[in-house]
TrEMBL record:
This is Bifunctional protein FolD. Its EC number is 1.5.1.5, 3.5.4.9. Pathway: One-carbon metabolism; tetrahydrofolate interconversion. Residues 145-293 form the Tetrahydrofolate dehydrogenase/cyclohydrolase NAD(P)-binding domain. GO terms for biological process: L-histidine biosynthetic process; methionine biosynthetic process; purine nucleotide biosynthetic process; tetrahydrofolate interconversion. It comes from the Bacteria. SUPFAM superfamilies: Aminoacid dehydrogenase-like, N-terminal domain, NAD(P)-binding Rossmann-fold domains.
Length: 302
């Protein structure tokens, strides 16, 4: 039988509010020097989840005191038109951060689009220059992807800044979450394993982790008995599933872990919703503020 070990839910909502408050305070100071951070968000098509995220980003940017620009493009837009818009935003001094909401329709080469964003405005941290900086420890000027950066702050809430002697397993190897997450954990001196859906004995690999970051995008794939007693568990998955026994068609969000089972063994665990998700948007604000500060040679709180 499993037993709770000083279990605590890590509220991403609270941590995100704390970051946003710090962003607001520094933005208000910068206003005195005539500096206003500017964030441009581009969305192609009408995917409902993407619409929700983009609208949340715009609202949060305004709440922070930023100049917020949104460009909605039709699903059939030509790649060249999107690239021309990014080129114009790259040259616009009022814009410090540019983000293209993913996923993009299949006729557009997402890699080409992401690499066309000026590295110093790449607040998603997806450009090769920023990926390389993170990978080589040049974190002073790197933009770190928002979801792993936010996850790392939640891990620090439990373990502090150094993770020496701790074993971390990242389940998932995406460029957006898995790989940058592994680099951040490594930079904090954790012993890191990147596992994925084709890893043999995935359950046993997970079971040896002091910190487990689940980013596979498969609802409740990681079971409670895969979690070491007392581990810290970060659930990056945001999966919409049909509500069992509820009204037909009604859905709810679940993570990549079975929360109830994992919570019974974990020392600390992030919920879905209300865990890593809100941190993604807060870190976007932090990155945009940093981009504005770097552009104007001003100091940034992050
Ligand atoms: N250009 C990018 N595209 C995408 C990114 C990204 O970082 N950059 N990440 C995801 C989506 N995403 C932000 O864009 C995102 C996902 C989830 C949340 C969030 O706050 N989730 C809430 C639940 C919201 C709901 O009810 O649906 C939560 O977990 O509490 C924020 C941002 C893919 N695309």
């Amino acid at each position: 039988m499993t037993q709770a070990v000083n279990n605590r839910t890590i509220s991403g909502k609270d941590a995100a509010e704390n970051i946003v408050e710090r962003v607001k305070a520094r933005t208000a100071e910068l206003a005195g020097a005539g500096i206003k951070p500017g964030l441009a968000v581009i969305i192609v098509g009408s995917d409902p989840a993407s619409q929700v995220y983009v609208s949340a980003k715009g609202k949060k940017a305004e709440e922070c005191g930023f100049f917020s620009f949104k460009q909605q493009l039709p699903p059939e837009v030509a790649e060249d038109r999107l690239l021309a818009l990014i080129e114009a935003l790259n040259r616009d001094p009022a814009i410090h951060g540019i983000l293209v909401q993913l996923p993009l329709p299949s006729h557009i080469d997402a890699g080409k689009v992401v690499q066309s964003i000026a590295p110093e405005k790449d607040v998603d941290g997806f450009h090769f220059i920023n990926v390389g900086k993170l990978g080589t420890g040049e974190t002073r000027t790197a933009f770190v992807p928002c979801t792993p950066a936010g996850s790392m702050i939640l891990i620090e809430r439990i373990h502090g800044k150094g993770l020496s002697g701790l074993s971390a397993v990242v389940v998932g190897r995406s460029n957006i979450v898995g790989k940058p997450m592994a680099n951040l954990l490594l930079a904090a001196n954790a012993t890191v394993t990147i596992a994925h859906s084709r890893t043999s004995n995935l359950d046993a690999v997970c079971r040896q982790a002091d910190i487990i970051v689940a980013a596979v995008g498969r609802p409740r794939m990681i079971r409670g008995d895969w979690i070491k007693q007392g581990a810290t568990v970060i659930d990056v998955g945001i999966n919409r599933v049909l509500l069992e026994g509820g009204e037909p068609g009604k859905t709810r969000l679940v993570g990549d872990l079975d929360f109830g089972e994992a919570a019974a063994r974990a020392r600390a665990i992030t919920p879905v919703p209300g865990g890593v998700g809100p941190m993604t948007i807060a870190m976007l604000m932090a990155n945009t503020l940093r981009a504005a500060c770097l552009a104007h040679d001003a100091s940034a709180p992050f």
